[in-house]
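for the recovery benchmark. C-alpha coordinates below, seq after
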Protein backbone atom coordinates (compact mmCIF):
# COMPACT_ATOMS: atom_id res chain seq x y z
CA UNK A 1 0.00 0.00 0.00
CA UNK A 2 1.20 3.47 -0.84
CA UNK A 3 -0.05 6.13 1.51
CA UNK A 4 0.70 9.76 2.11
CA UNK A 5 -0.56 11.86 4.97
CA UNK A 6 0.07 15.23 6.51
CA UNK A 7 -1.02 13.94 9.91
CA UNK A 8 1.36 12.84 12.63
CA UNK A 9 0.42 10.13 15.09
CA UNK A 10 0.71 11.59 18.58
CA UNK A 11 3.33 9.99 20.78
CA UNK A 12 2.20 8.09 23.85
CA UNK A 13 5.59 8.32 25.48
CA UNK A 14 7.63 5.49 26.89
CA UNK A 15 5.27 4.38 29.67
CA UNK A 16 6.02 1.23 31.63
CA UNK A 17 2.72 -0.30 32.78
CA UNK A 18 2.05 -1.34 36.31
CA UNK A 19 0.41 -4.73 36.64
CA UNK A 20 -1.78 -3.97 39.60
CA UNK A 21 -4.06 -1.28 41.10
CA UNK A 22 -6.56 -1.31 38.26
CA UNK A 23 -8.99 1.59 38.02
CA UNK A 24 -12.03 1.71 35.74
CA UNK A 25 -12.88 5.31 34.87
CA UNK A 26 -16.59 6.08 34.61
CA UNK A 27 -16.42 9.87 34.64
CA UNK A 28 -15.61 12.37 31.90
CA UNK A 29 -14.27 10.78 28.70
CA UNK A 30 -10.59 11.25 28.03
CA UNK A 31 -9.88 13.91 25.39
CA UNK A 32 -6.45 12.74 24.22
CA UNK A 33 -5.91 10.93 20.92
CA UNK A 34 -5.44 7.24 21.78
CA UNK A 35 -3.45 4.75 19.75
CA UNK A 36 -3.92 1.01 19.73
CA UNK A 37 -2.24 -2.31 19.01
CA UNK A 38 -3.66 -5.74 18.22
CA UNK A 39 -2.17 -9.00 19.49
CA UNK A 40 -3.35 -12.25 17.92
CA UNK A 41 -2.48 -15.42 19.82
CA UNK A 42 -2.23 -18.89 18.34
CA UNK A 43 0.24 -21.23 16.69
CA UNK A 44 -2.35 -21.90 13.97
CA UNK A 45 -1.87 -18.32 12.74
CA UNK A 46 1.92 -18.48 12.84
CA UNK A 47 2.10 -21.68 10.79
CA UNK A 48 -0.38 -20.39 8.22
CA UNK A 49 -3.15 -22.83 9.09
CA UNK A 50 -5.53 -19.99 10.00
CA UNK A 51 -5.64 -16.59 8.32
CA UNK A 52 -5.91 -13.63 10.68
CA UNK A 53 -9.09 -11.87 9.55
CA UNK A 54 -9.80 -10.55 13.04
CA UNK A 55 -7.14 -7.84 12.91
CA UNK A 56 -8.43 -6.41 9.63
CA UNK A 57 -11.95 -6.16 11.02
CA UNK A 58 -10.84 -4.70 14.36
CA UNK A 59 -8.51 -2.22 12.65
CA UNK A 60 -11.31 -0.89 10.48
CA UNK A 61 -13.63 -0.43 13.46
CA UNK A 62 -10.99 1.33 15.57
CA UNK A 63 -9.96 3.60 12.70
CA UNK A 64 -13.52 4.81 12.27
CA UNK A 65 -13.56 5.70 15.97
CA UNK A 66 -10.40 7.77 15.68
CA UNK A 67 -8.21 5.17 17.40
CA UNK A 68 -5.43 4.37 14.91
CA UNK A 69 -3.72 0.97 15.03
CA UNK A 70 0.06 1.26 15.31
CA UNK A 71 0.96 -2.44 15.21
CA UNK A 72 -0.55 -5.86 14.64
CA UNK A 73 1.42 -8.66 16.30
CA UNK A 74 0.96 -12.43 16.04
CA UNK A 75 2.49 -14.59 18.76
CA UNK A 76 2.42 -18.17 20.01
CA UNK A 77 0.32 -19.11 23.02
CA UNK A 78 3.35 -19.57 25.26
CA UNK A 79 2.93 -17.54 28.49
CA UNK A 80 6.33 -15.85 28.10
CA UNK A 81 5.38 -14.60 24.64
CA UNK A 82 2.03 -13.31 25.88
CA UNK A 83 3.63 -11.43 28.80
CA UNK A 84 6.35 -9.96 26.59
CA UNK A 85 3.88 -8.80 23.93
CA UNK A 86 1.61 -7.22 26.53
CA UNK A 87 4.49 -5.30 28.14
CA UNK A 88 5.70 -4.02 24.78
CA UNK A 89 2.29 -2.99 23.48
CA UNK A 90 1.24 -1.36 26.75
CA UNK A 91 4.42 0.73 26.74
CA UNK A 92 3.41 2.27 23.41
CA UNK A 93 -0.38 2.41 23.16
CA UNK A 94 -3.45 3.34 25.15
CA UNK A 95 -5.54 0.43 23.87
CA UNK A 96 -4.37 -3.17 23.40
CA UNK A 97 -6.76 -5.74 21.95
CA UNK A 98 -5.95 -9.43 22.28
CA UNK A 99 -7.70 -12.24 20.40
CA UNK A 100 -7.24 -15.98 20.77
CA UNK A 101 -6.28 -18.50 23.41
CA UNK A 102 -9.50 -18.33 25.46
CA UNK A 103 -10.91 -21.73 24.56
CA UNK A 104 -11.85 -24.47 27.06
CA UNK A 105 -8.94 -26.83 26.32
CA UNK A 106 -5.62 -27.13 28.12
CA UNK A 107 -3.63 -25.60 25.26
CA UNK A 108 -5.45 -22.25 25.65
CA UNK A 109 -3.40 -20.47 28.31
CA UNK A 110 -4.19 -16.81 27.70
CA UNK A 111 -6.68 -16.38 30.55
CA UNK A 112 -4.39 -17.85 33.19
CA UNK A 113 -1.51 -15.75 31.90
CA UNK A 114 -3.64 -12.58 32.00
CA UNK A 115 -4.68 -13.31 35.58
CA UNK A 116 -1.03 -13.68 36.60
CA UNK A 117 0.04 -10.62 34.60
CA UNK A 118 -2.56 -8.40 36.26
CA UNK A 119 -1.98 -9.81 39.77
CA UNK A 120 -5.40 -11.41 39.84
CA UNK A 121 -7.12 -14.66 40.73
CA UNK A 122 -9.73 -16.55 38.72
CA UNK A 123 -13.30 -16.50 40.03
CA UNK A 124 -16.60 -17.76 38.62
CA UNK A 125 -18.67 -14.99 37.04
CA UNK A 126 -22.36 -15.67 37.74
CA UNK A 127 -23.59 -14.02 34.55
CA UNK A 128 -21.23 -16.05 32.37
CA UNK A 129 -22.11 -19.36 34.04
CA UNK A 130 -25.75 -18.46 33.54
CA UNK A 131 -25.14 -17.84 29.85
CA UNK A 132 -23.36 -21.20 29.53
CA UNK A 133 -26.19 -23.06 31.26
CA UNK A 134 -28.79 -21.46 28.99
CA UNK A 135 -26.79 -22.23 25.86
CA UNK A 136 -26.21 -25.87 26.78
CA UNK A 137 -29.79 -26.20 27.98
CA UNK A 138 -31.13 -25.16 24.56
CA UNK A 139 -28.97 -27.85 22.99
CA UNK A 140 -29.91 -30.50 25.59
CA UNK A 141 -26.21 -31.20 26.20
CA UNK A 142 -24.73 -31.83 29.68
CA UNK A 143 -22.23 -29.17 30.75
CA UNK A 144 -18.71 -30.54 31.18
CA UNK A 145 -16.11 -29.18 33.56
CA UNK A 146 -14.09 -27.58 30.77
CA UNK A 147 -17.20 -25.72 29.65
CA UNK A 148 -17.96 -24.53 33.18
CA UNK A 149 -14.36 -23.33 33.45
CA UNK A 150 -15.16 -20.82 30.71
CA UNK A 151 -16.95 -18.84 33.43
CA UNK A 152 -13.68 -18.39 35.35
CA UNK A 153 -12.39 -14.84 34.90
CA UNK A 154 -9.77 -12.66 36.62
CA UNK A 155 -11.48 -11.03 39.59
CA UNK A 156 -10.26 -7.52 38.73
CA UNK A 157 -11.40 -7.36 35.09
CA UNK A 158 -14.66 -6.05 33.70
CA UNK A 159 -16.45 -8.92 32.01
CA UNK A 160 -17.93 -8.35 28.55
CA UNK A 161 -20.46 -11.07 27.84
CA UNK A 162 -20.27 -13.15 24.69
CA UNK A 163 -23.62 -13.31 22.81
CA UNK A 164 -22.35 -16.01 20.43
CA UNK A 165 -20.32 -18.36 22.61
CA UNK A 166 -19.09 -19.29 26.08
CA UNK A 167 -15.77 -17.41 26.44
CA UNK A 168 -16.40 -13.83 27.65
CA UNK A 169 -14.38 -10.77 26.83
CA UNK A 170 -12.25 -9.24 29.60
CA UNK A 171 -11.47 -5.54 30.03
CA UNK A 172 -8.44 -4.54 32.14
CA UNK A 173 -6.99 -1.14 32.96
CA UNK A 174 -3.46 -0.48 34.11
CA UNK A 175 -1.37 2.70 34.18
CA UNK A 176 -3.65 4.47 31.73
CA UNK A 177 -3.78 1.58 29.25
CA UNK A 178 -6.82 -0.55 28.44
CA UNK A 179 -6.26 -4.22 27.60
CA UNK A 180 -9.17 -6.14 26.11
CA UNK A 181 -8.97 -9.92 25.68
CA UNK A 182 -11.44 -11.74 23.42
CA UNK A 183 -11.80 -15.21 21.91
CA UNK A 184 -10.29 -15.79 18.48
CA UNK A 185 -13.41 -17.21 16.81
CA UNK A 186 -14.36 -14.35 14.44
CA UNK A 187 -18.13 -14.27 14.96
CA UNK A 188 -17.67 -14.47 18.73
CA UNK A 189 -15.08 -11.68 18.71
CA UNK A 190 -17.34 -9.47 16.57
CA UNK A 191 -20.29 -9.98 18.90
CA UNK A 192 -18.20 -8.94 21.89
CA UNK A 193 -16.75 -5.93 20.04
CA UNK A 194 -20.09 -4.66 18.73
CA UNK A 195 -22.06 -5.28 21.91
CA UNK A 196 -19.52 -4.26 24.53
CA UNK A 197 -16.05 -3.14 23.53
CA UNK A 198 -16.82 -0.47 20.95
CA UNK A 199 -19.47 1.29 23.06
CA UNK A 200 -17.13 1.26 26.08
CA UNK A 201 -14.25 2.68 24.06
CA UNK A 202 -16.49 5.39 22.61
CA UNK A 203 -17.56 6.37 26.13
CA UNK A 204 -14.01 6.24 27.47
CA UNK A 205 -12.31 8.34 24.79
CA UNK A 206 -13.30 11.56 23.12
CA UNK A 207 -11.20 11.08 19.99
CA UNK A 208 -11.84 13.25 16.93
CA UNK A 209 -13.90 11.36 14.35
CA UNK A 210 -12.13 9.75 11.42
CA UNK A 211 -14.11 9.42 8.19
CA UNK A 212 -13.24 7.63 4.97
CA UNK A 213 -14.43 7.82 1.40
CA UNK A 214 -13.33 5.15 -1.07
CA UNK A 215 -13.25 5.49 -4.86
CA UNK A 216 -13.09 2.21 -6.78
CA UNK A 217 -11.08 2.27 -10.02
CA UNK A 218 -10.11 -0.32 -12.63
CA UNK A 219 -8.11 -0.36 -15.84
CA UNK A 220 -5.16 1.65 -14.56
CA UNK A 221 -2.18 0.82 -12.35
CA UNK A 222 -1.17 2.46 -9.09
CA UNK A 223 1.87 4.35 -10.41
CA UNK A 224 0.05 5.64 -13.49
CA UNK A 225 -2.81 6.79 -11.29
CA UNK A 226 -0.43 8.57 -8.91
CA UNK A 227 1.14 10.50 -11.78
CA UNK A 228 -2.25 11.72 -13.02
CA UNK A 229 -3.51 12.93 -9.65
CA UNK A 230 -0.20 14.11 -8.21
CA UNK A 231 -1.10 17.81 -8.26
CA UNK A 232 -4.47 17.19 -6.63
CA UNK A 233 -2.92 14.96 -3.97
CA UNK A 234 -0.20 17.47 -3.07
CA UNK A 235 -2.88 20.13 -2.47
CA UNK A 236 -4.85 18.07 0.07
CA UNK A 237 -5.83 20.17 3.09
CA UNK A 238 -4.43 19.53 6.54
CA UNK A 239 -5.91 16.49 8.33
CA UNK A 240 -6.83 14.83 5.02
CA UNK A 241 -4.83 12.07 3.37
CA UNK A 242 -4.98 9.67 0.44
CA UNK A 243 -4.10 5.97 0.41
CA UNK A 244 -3.63 3.77 -2.66
CA UNK A 245 -4.88 0.20 -2.13
CA UNK A 246 -4.02 -1.85 -5.22
CA UNK A 247 -5.15 -5.41 -5.98
CA UNK A 248 -5.24 -7.41 -9.24
CA UNK A 249 -7.15 -5.40 -11.82
CA UNK A 250 -8.12 -2.50 -9.58
CA UNK A 251 -6.95 0.30 -7.29
CA UNK A 252 -8.95 1.63 -4.35
CA UNK A 253 -8.38 5.30 -3.55
CA UNK A 254 -9.26 5.95 0.08
CA UNK A 255 -9.55 9.56 1.22
CA UNK A 256 -9.37 9.97 5.00
CA UNK A 257 -10.40 13.05 6.95
CA UNK A 258 -10.04 13.95 10.63
CA UNK A 259 -11.54 16.78 12.61
CA UNK A 260 -13.60 17.78 15.63
CA UNK A 261 -16.74 18.55 13.60
CA UNK A 262 -18.08 15.45 11.85
CA UNK A 263 -20.34 17.47 9.57
CA UNK A 264 -17.51 19.65 8.28
CA UNK A 265 -15.23 16.63 7.72
CA UNK A 266 -17.96 14.74 5.86
CA UNK A 267 -18.76 17.75 3.65
CA UNK A 268 -15.09 18.24 2.78
CA UNK A 269 -14.71 14.53 2.01
CA UNK A 270 -17.59 14.70 -0.45
CA UNK A 271 -16.03 17.73 -2.16
CA UNK A 272 -12.64 16.01 -2.44
CA UNK A 273 -14.26 12.84 -3.76
CA UNK A 274 -16.07 14.79 -6.46
CA UNK A 275 -12.84 16.56 -7.43
CA UNK A 276 -10.89 13.32 -7.70
CA UNK A 277 -13.65 11.52 -9.60
CA UNK A 278 -13.71 14.37 -12.12
CA UNK A 279 -9.97 13.94 -12.75
CA UNK A 280 -10.22 10.21 -13.53
CA UNK A 281 -13.78 9.54 -14.78
CA UNK A 282 -12.81 6.84 -17.28
CA UNK A 283 -11.42 4.62 -14.51
CA UNK A 284 -13.95 5.14 -11.72
CA UNK A 285 -16.57 2.41 -11.57
CA UNK A 286 -17.97 2.77 -8.04
CA UNK A 287 -17.57 3.84 -4.44
CA UNK A 288 -17.27 2.41 -0.93
CA UNK A 289 -15.97 -1.07 -1.72
CA UNK A 290 -18.50 -1.77 -4.44
CA UNK A 291 -17.46 -4.71 -6.57
CA UNK A 292 -17.56 -4.42 -10.34
CA UNK A 293 -20.16 -7.20 -10.47
CA UNK A 294 -22.42 -5.25 -8.10
CA UNK A 295 -22.25 -2.21 -10.36
CA UNK A 296 -22.98 -4.33 -13.45
CA UNK A 297 -25.90 -5.99 -11.67
CA UNK A 298 -27.39 -2.59 -10.86
CA UNK A 299 -27.04 -1.39 -14.45
CA UNK A 300 -28.65 -4.50 -15.93
CA UNK A 301 -31.44 -4.62 -13.36
CA UNK A 302 -32.37 -0.97 -13.79
CA UNK A 303 -32.64 -1.42 -17.55
CA UNK A 304 -34.23 -4.86 -17.58
CA UNK A 305 -31.33 -6.37 -19.55
CA UNK A 306 -29.86 -9.87 -19.58
CA UNK A 307 -26.34 -11.22 -20.08
CA UNK A 308 -24.51 -14.51 -20.58
CA UNK A 309 -20.84 -15.47 -20.64
CA UNK A 310 -18.53 -17.60 -22.77
CA UNK A 311 -15.27 -18.32 -20.99
CA UNK A 312 -12.03 -20.02 -21.89
CA UNK A 313 -9.02 -18.95 -19.80
CA UNK A 314 -11.14 -17.66 -16.89
CA UNK A 315 -12.77 -21.08 -16.53
CA UNK A 316 -16.10 -19.82 -15.22
CA UNK A 317 -14.81 -17.14 -12.84
CA UNK A 318 -16.87 -14.39 -14.48
CA UNK A 319 -20.01 -16.51 -14.08
CA UNK A 320 -19.08 -17.22 -10.46
CA UNK A 321 -18.61 -13.53 -9.67
CA UNK A 322 -21.96 -12.64 -11.21
CA UNK A 323 -23.94 -15.44 -9.59
CA UNK A 324 -22.54 -14.91 -6.10
CA UNK A 325 -24.93 -11.95 -5.87
CA UNK A 326 -28.50 -12.62 -4.71
CA UNK A 327 -31.09 -12.01 -7.41
CA UNK A 328 -28.64 -12.57 -10.28
CA UNK A 329 -31.09 -14.96 -11.98
CA UNK A 330 -33.09 -11.88 -13.02
CA UNK A 331 -30.38 -10.75 -15.45
CA UNK A 332 -27.93 -13.65 -15.87
CA UNK A 333 -28.90 -16.57 -18.11
CA UNK A 334 -25.86 -18.85 -18.06
CA UNK A 335 -22.38 -19.66 -19.30
CA UNK A 336 -20.52 -21.89 -21.68
CA UNK A 337 -17.05 -22.71 -20.41
CA UNK A 338 -15.30 -23.59 -23.66
CA UNK A 339 -11.79 -24.40 -22.55
CA UNK A 340 -10.85 -26.62 -25.49
CA UNK A 341 -11.10 -25.77 -29.19
CA UNK A 342 -13.41 -28.74 -29.62
CA UNK A 343 -15.94 -27.24 -27.21
CA UNK A 344 -15.57 -23.84 -28.84
CA UNK A 345 -16.58 -25.45 -32.14
CA UNK A 346 -19.31 -27.82 -30.96
CA UNK A 347 -20.97 -25.72 -28.25
CA UNK A 348 -20.26 -22.15 -29.35
CA UNK A 349 -20.17 -22.88 -33.08
CA UNK A 350 -16.84 -21.10 -33.58
CA UNK A 351 -15.68 -21.88 -37.11
CA UNK A 352 -12.76 -24.26 -37.52
CA UNK A 353 -11.28 -21.99 -40.16
CA UNK A 354 -11.13 -19.06 -37.73
CA UNK A 355 -9.48 -21.20 -35.09
CA UNK A 356 -6.93 -22.54 -37.56
CA UNK A 357 -6.15 -19.19 -39.16
CA UNK A 358 -6.08 -16.89 -36.10
CA UNK A 359 -5.82 -19.22 -33.09
CA UNK A 360 -8.07 -19.47 -30.05
CA UNK A 361 -6.58 -16.32 -28.51
CA UNK A 362 -7.60 -13.79 -31.12
CA UNK A 363 -10.08 -11.02 -31.80
CA UNK A 364 -11.84 -13.11 -34.42
CA UNK A 365 -12.41 -16.17 -32.21
CA UNK A 366 -13.39 -14.30 -29.07
CA UNK A 367 -15.78 -12.20 -31.14
CA UNK A 368 -17.50 -15.33 -32.44
CA UNK A 369 -17.63 -16.76 -28.93
CA UNK A 370 -19.45 -13.65 -27.71
CA UNK A 371 -21.88 -13.20 -30.60
CA UNK A 372 -22.76 -16.92 -30.79
CA UNK A 373 -23.26 -17.20 -27.01
CA UNK A 374 -25.61 -14.22 -27.12
CA UNK A 375 -27.62 -15.85 -29.89
CA UNK A 376 -27.66 -19.31 -28.36
CA UNK A 377 -28.62 -18.17 -24.86
CA UNK A 378 -30.95 -15.42 -26.13
CA UNK A 379 -29.61 -12.51 -24.04
CA UNK A 380 -29.24 -8.79 -24.61
CA UNK A 381 -25.48 -8.90 -23.96
CA UNK A 382 -22.72 -11.46 -23.76
CA UNK A 383 -19.10 -11.43 -22.63
CA UNK A 384 -16.40 -13.77 -23.92
CA UNK A 385 -12.80 -14.29 -22.83
CA UNK A 386 -9.91 -16.26 -24.33
CA UNK A 387 -6.29 -15.94 -23.30
CA UNK A 388 -2.98 -17.46 -22.26
CA UNK A 389 -3.05 -17.48 -18.47
CA UNK A 390 0.33 -19.21 -18.14
CA UNK A 391 2.79 -20.16 -16.94
CA UNK A 392 3.21 -22.04 -20.25
CA UNK A 393 1.73 -21.70 -23.70
CA UNK A 394 3.05 -18.29 -24.72
CA UNK A 395 4.74 -17.42 -28.00
CA UNK A 396 6.67 -14.35 -29.17
CA UNK A 397 3.52 -13.14 -30.93
CA UNK A 398 1.22 -14.04 -28.04
CA UNK A 399 3.16 -14.04 -24.76
CA UNK A 400 1.81 -15.33 -21.48
CA UNK A 401 -0.77 -12.87 -20.17
CA UNK A 402 -2.27 -12.09 -23.59
CA UNK A 403 -6.06 -12.00 -23.22
CA UNK A 404 -8.76 -11.12 -25.74
CA UNK A 405 -12.15 -10.01 -24.40
CA UNK A 406 -15.28 -9.38 -26.45
CA UNK A 407 -18.68 -7.93 -25.60
CA UNK A 408 -21.65 -8.48 -27.88
CA UNK A 409 -24.79 -6.43 -27.66
CA UNK A 410 -27.58 -4.82 -29.69
CA UNK A 411 -25.10 -2.61 -31.51
CA UNK A 412 -22.72 -5.40 -32.53
CA UNK A 413 -19.60 -7.03 -31.12
CA UNK A 414 -16.39 -5.33 -30.01
CA UNK A 415 -13.18 -6.93 -28.80
CA UNK A 416 -10.06 -5.69 -27.03
CA UNK A 417 -6.63 -7.14 -26.31
CA UNK A 418 -5.04 -7.00 -22.84
CA UNK A 419 -1.60 -7.90 -21.53
CA UNK A 420 -2.08 -9.09 -17.95
CA UNK A 421 1.34 -10.31 -16.83
CA UNK A 422 3.01 -13.62 -16.10
CA UNK A 423 1.25 -14.88 -12.95
CA UNK A 424 -1.55 -17.32 -13.75
CA UNK A 425 -3.80 -16.58 -10.78
CA UNK A 426 -3.56 -12.81 -11.18
CA UNK A 427 -4.07 -13.07 -14.94
CA UNK A 428 -7.33 -14.96 -14.49
CA UNK A 429 -8.59 -12.55 -11.84
CA UNK A 430 -7.59 -9.47 -13.86
CA UNK A 431 -9.23 -10.92 -16.98
CA UNK A 432 -12.53 -11.39 -15.14
CA UNK A 433 -12.31 -7.82 -13.80
CA UNK A 434 -11.59 -6.39 -17.25
CA UNK A 435 -14.40 -8.39 -18.83
CA UNK A 436 -16.97 -7.12 -16.34
CA UNK A 437 -15.71 -3.57 -16.80
CA UNK A 438 -15.99 -3.85 -20.60
CA UNK A 439 -19.58 -4.98 -20.13
CA UNK A 440 -20.26 -2.06 -17.78
CA UNK A 441 -18.86 0.47 -20.22
CA UNK A 442 -20.75 -1.04 -23.14
CA UNK A 443 -24.11 -0.93 -21.33
CA UNK A 444 -23.48 2.68 -20.34
CA UNK A 445 -22.46 3.65 -23.88
CA UNK A 446 -25.51 2.01 -25.42
CA UNK A 447 -27.78 3.77 -22.93
CA UNK A 448 -26.14 7.14 -23.74
CA UNK A 449 -26.45 6.51 -27.49
CA UNK A 450 -30.14 5.70 -27.11
CA UNK A 451 -30.70 8.90 -25.11
CA UNK A 452 -29.07 10.90 -27.91
CA UNK A 453 -31.38 9.34 -30.48
CA UNK A 454 -34.54 9.93 -28.51
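predicted aa per position
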Amino acid sequence: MRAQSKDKVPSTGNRQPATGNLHFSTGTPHSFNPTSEIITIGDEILIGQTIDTNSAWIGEKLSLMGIPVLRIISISDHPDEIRSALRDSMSRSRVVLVTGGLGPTNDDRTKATLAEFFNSRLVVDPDVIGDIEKLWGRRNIPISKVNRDQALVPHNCTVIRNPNGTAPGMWFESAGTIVIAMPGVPFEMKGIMDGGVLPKLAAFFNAPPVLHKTIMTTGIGESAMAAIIEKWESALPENFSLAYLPSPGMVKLRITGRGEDTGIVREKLETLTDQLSTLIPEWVYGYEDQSIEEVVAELLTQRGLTVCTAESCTGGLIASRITQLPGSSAYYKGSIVAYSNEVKQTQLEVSASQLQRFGAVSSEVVGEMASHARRLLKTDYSVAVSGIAGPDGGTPEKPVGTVWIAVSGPGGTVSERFFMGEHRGRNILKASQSALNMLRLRVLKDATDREKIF
